[in-house]
Design brief:
The chain is mainly alpha-helical and about 100 residues long. It has one domain (about 15-95): ACP-like (Non-ribosomal Peptide Synthetase Peptidyl Carrier Protein, Chain A, Orthogonal Bundle), CATH 1.10.1200.10. The chain is about 60% helix and about 0% strand. The protein has five helices and no strands. It has helices spanning about 15-25, 40-45, 50-60, 70-75, 75-95. It is globular. About 20% of the residues are buried. Residues about 1-5 have low confidence and may be disordered.
């Protein structure tokens, strides 16, 4: 599983999406290919504990705080990865 800790900024939301798919398929029994990135997180069977763990690991991986409540506003892999990438881009632009 490629969910190692690093703080390199991804070049697009697809890199974050791939990280999330790798994480989700490592903790639940869902095929990785094709992975339904537009499905809501609750459709995968992820509970709040797994969401919280995933957010913490994303913080470590990308060096940006990802609050589990952001999942409610961005309820799919596609939406959350785009949201996190947007935040990372804003952080980079402000630096």
């Amino acid at each position: 599983m490629s969910t190692e800790t690093h703080t390199a900024k991804p070049t697009d939301a697809t890199a974050i999406q791939t990280w999330m798919v790798n994480y989700i398929t490592s903790v639940i029994d869902v095929p990785e290919d094709p992975f339904p990135v537009e499905e809501r997180f609750d459709m995968y069977g992820l509970d709040s504990v797994e969401i919280t763990i995933m957010c913490g690991m994303m913080e470590e991986a990308y060096g940006i705080e990802v609050n589990p409540t952001e999942v409610f506003d961005n309820p799919s892999v596609a939406a959350l990865s785009a949201h996190v990438f947007r935040r990372l881009s804003e952080t980079t632009a402000a630096a």
